[in-house]
Fold:
Amino acid sequence: MSEDFYSWWDYSDPAATERRFRDYLPNAGKQATEVQIQIARTLGLQGRFDEAFDLLDEIEPLIANPTERVRFHLEKGRALNSSKMPEEAVEQFRAAYTLAIDAELHDLAADAAHMMAIALPLDKQIEWAEKGLAIAEHRPEAERWKGPLLNNLGWTYMDLGQPDKALSAFEEALEFRRTMGQAEPTRIAVWCVARALRELCRPEEALTLLRQIEPEKDDPYVSEEIANCLAMIEGKT
Structure:
């Protein structure tokens, strides 16, 4: 995908993003297939899965290069995973990863590994998160995936009952977000660190972090976590 297209995305408003891509489509020229793949993604994010699958089926014969092929598998996989078909989704993500590695499309390979680490059962998620991180840490064009991969790895460790390892992953993700100057992802990363600290029975440290981000916006998740920390502190006294 053209790097310019990344700025067109508003993941909090996929309907507006869909309109943006559809408005561009008549003038897309050789990018038309890629644009339609992005439209399919917006449809999936809106829960319009049948439309997403129909569009992907329609454009599959038009795919002309490895980038389009990898993106096709990624977006079909995302739609399948969101529509509660993880096994079918994994097949698509695995195909995307293999093709991306073969074509040295490192950014897309990291994306595919990231999705494998989401769609697979818990006991296989760490392996794929680490594959994605290996790419993100050694390929500048894939560096942006380091934050999401570390975040997902942290939650995998939380689900496995290993909050100490989760904390390490969340702290590394927070450092990355701060280095990249990403305000909202940084705030979320702070919350994740605080959540792991509470799980480790360190509510005072967690509360200190949460108080730093509390004034930034009215966030029920932050408020709830503050309440949980206060309750734990009160229970310790």
Q: What stands out?
A: The chain has a mean pLDDT of 95. Residues 161-237 form one domain. The chain has 13 helices and no strands. The first helix runs from residue 3 to 6.
